[in-house]
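Why does residue order matter? Because the sequence determines the fold. Keep that principle in mind as you read this record.
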Amino acid sequence: MLCPFVYWGQNSETINLRIDLKNVENPSIDLSEKELKFVGNGVGAKGHNTYTVNISFYEPILPKQSFFKHNERQIDFILKKSEFKIWPRLFNAQMKPIWLKVDFDKFHTGDTEDEADNEFRTRENIFKDLRDKNFGRRKKSQRLTPEEFRKVYLFLYNLFQFVGFVYILVVLTIRYAKDGSESVRSSYKALSGVMKVLHLIQVLEIIHPLIRYTSGSVLFTSLHLINRLIFIFVMIDGEPRMQMKPVVLYLFLLYTTLEIIRYPYYMFKVCDVNISLLAWLHHTAWIPLFPMIFFSEAAVLFRNISYFEETEKFSLFLPNAANFSFYLPHLIRIYLLTIFFPVMYMVFTRKYRKRKATMALMQKCSKMD
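Structure:
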């Protein structure tokens, strides 16, 4: 009996199952309070065969309030729990089958916000539509499905960004190894173009959650990117004397290191590949990197106060047509004195809570394995 890979996740209300079986034909699905039985012809780990899934649930579910969705790459189930609570495991038995995997994107605990996918809740219960003759069949002329296009696009986007930041790190390393401390004065001029392009392309990361290509906070992503753009285009690019300071080189190294860790994590995540070491690194690297980034940015701001007082660049004085004045050095002082530390605290708190929930989930999954 062949079994496909099954990925599972949960929140307090529902169980999420994903059967990794492509081009399913003639499926048979039997869902009851205590178990799920699935038999179908499709392409899985052992090629095109008949695959079977039998799951005896840890606790009863509500079949009439459960849903499933099918596409040509997988079959997704959302099963309503009879009681609102987190299950310690999926199966009633203690032994975990080798074909059962954890879907980290669908695993939610009380330490994080409930981001459960509500897409299926607005649909009719389509178990009654299993007799559809076109179920699971793919036309030869059909192109990539929207879900396939989303995954290919996100993978290529993350790969492009990863290669770009690796290029920056390699060039910085080679220049420093060749010229030593003399490379500090010219590193910005050599790499500013690449750094600007990569961060401008990151504007797409604000659009991705808006069009539901990714999950996450649009507000947090927007504020993070706006902060980066202000430092690169205004605080550094706007003051030539700042470009030759060592702190700019350190800041570029910190930005680059953070992104080189972040983008591979998202690349594998798009492909539904969970690498524990990479996930741990992604949720841990910020602990040393974020404080260094914050204080490097503070050093840039503090040094720019005198520069912008001298040049009066990016400031607006009366009288003018808009009848409005703006003095950038004053804004920098206000930010450093009243906003800098609260913002740092909020960012650290958010990252810590996310890391705490992820680490707890990884430990729980390792015990179940």
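The beta strands are 6-10, 14-19, 22-31, 35-44, 47-56, 61-70, 75-81, 100-107.
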